[in-house]
Amino acid sequence: MSAKTILLTNDDGIDAPGLAALESSLRGLGRIIVAAPDREQSGASHALTLGRPLRVLPRGDGRFQVDGTPADCVHLGVFNLTGGRPPDLVVSGINRGANLGDDVTYSGTVAGALEGTLLHIPSIAVSAEVDADGSAHFELAAALARSLAERVVAGGLPANVFLNVNVPRGPAKGVRVTRQGTRTYKAAAIERLDPSGRPYYWIGGADMIPAGEEDGDHEALRQGYVSISPLHANMTHAASLAEIAAWKVELP
Ligand code: MN
After folding, report:
1. 89 lies in which domain range?
2. Which residues fall within 8 angstroms of residue 244, CB to CB, at 6 or more apart?
3. pLDDT greater than 70 at residue 115
4. Are 186 and 200 in contact (CB under 8 A)?
5. 105 CA distance to ligand 1 middle (Å)
6. Residues less than 5 Å from ion ligand 1, measured at CB
7. Could you tell me if residue 232 is inside a domain?
8. 179 φ, ψ to 5°?
9. Taking phi first (over 0 means left), then psi (-120 to 50 degrees means alpha), and beta for anything else, what does residue 93 get?
10. Distance 60 CA to ligand 1 centre (A)
11. 12 CA to middle of ligand 1, Å?
12. What is the largest CA-CA distance in the chain?
C-alpha cells in the first residue's frame, strides 16, 4: 500500500506550538503536508476568501503558509498543494483552547475539519483546554491525534461525519464520546469608552455558562475526560422536515 497523505491545518497560525506538536506526533504516518494561516485566525469560522487572491509562501519541506483562513488552507491543500493527490486525512489543530458546544460554529479549527469533510476527506479537529494561566499542554492531545489518525486512515469515518476532539487541562481520567453541548452567555459583550469618550465593544470577554448536558462535550471536560464528538457536516434537521412541510407554505 502506498504511503498516505495527511494534510494539517490550524487556526492559531503556522508558527503555533500546537501545530508543531501535531506535526511531530503524526510524523512517520505518511506524507505530511502543512497548509496553515500566516496569522491567528481563531474565530474565523468557515470563511472562504473570495474577494482577493491568496498568496502561498513555502515554509520548508511540505509546509505552506497561506494569507487566508483555515478553510482556505484546506481548500488549497486538497486541490493545489498536495501534488495532484488529494490527502487521505485532514487534521486541524492542535488548537490552544477548547472548542466545545455552540462554539464549534465560530471555530476556525473545527472549520478546517469541516472543509475537509465537505471535500469528502476524513477529518479530525483537535483542541486542548488551556490552564488558568492561559498555557496549554499539547502532549496528550498530540498522542491522541496520532492514534485517532491511524484509526481513521485505516477505517475511515461515516460519510459527512468528522471528529471534534477536546482534551482537558490536567491529567485525563478517560475518554467519552459526547454530543455537541450548548451554553448561554451570562453577560453581553464588554462595553467601555475609548480615550475620546466613544463606546467600544469587545465580544468574548464575558463569562459563559454551559448548559451542562450529561452526555455533552462541556461536561466531559469539566469532569476531566477527553471528549470526542462525531459532528455532521449537513445541518438539515431531518426530524423537523415533516413538521415544517405540514405548514404547507405557499407563495404569497
Ligand atoms: Mn485557535
Report:
1. 5-179+212-243
2. none
3. yes
4. no
5. 13
6. 11-12, 42, 95
7. yes
8. -100, 160
9. left
10. 22
11. 4
12. 66
